[in-house]
Amino acid sequence: MSALSVNSTYSRTLHQNQQSRRSLSRMSTRAGGRQAMSELKLRRVIEHNQRLREDLARPRVRVSEASASLIRYCKTTKDHLVPSVWGPVGRAEDPYGAQTKGCQCSIQ
């Protein structure tokens, strides 16, 4: 989803939340359980609005930048589980192989 569509979606939802808040404040003038229900709905709308604001404030990375970073990482980081790409791994440098050194435990 592009930044433009995220902003327009956020703006549309924010506008809907403001309209809901206005209608809920009008409804809250009625007596009894309706007022409590309206306050509950208003609180939920405000919480949803806050979550949307936090989501909009979250830092974004373009897909092209993220994929370039992932490709660069895969090319520079040796993966011992893919010997067909990186070649055979010596026993000394294989972190997944059996350890030849004895255990460093002491029994007390």
UniProtKB/TrEMBL annotation:
Cell compartment(s), UniProt: Membrane
Biased composition (Polar residues): 1-28
Keywords tagged on the record: Lipoprotein, Membrane, Methylation, Palmitate, Prenylation, Transducer
Membrane topology label: Peripheral membrane protein
Ranges where the G protein gamma domain occurs: 50-108
One Gene Ontology term, aspect cellular component: heterotrimeric G-protein complex
Pfam families: G-gamma (PF00631)
Predominant localisation class: membrane
Region (Disordered), start-end ranges: 1-38
InterPro entries, per the entry: G-protein_gamma-like_dom, GGL_sf, Ste18_fungal
Gene Ontology BP term (one): G protein-coupled receptor signaling pathway
Transmembrane in keyword set: no
PROSITE patterns, sorted: G_PROTEIN_GAMMA
GO molecular function: G-protein beta-subunit binding
SUBUNIT field: G proteins are composed of 3 units, alpha, beta and gamma.
Similarity section: Belongs to the G protein gamma family.
Protein name: Guanine nucleotide-binding protein subunit gamma
Organism: Mycena venus
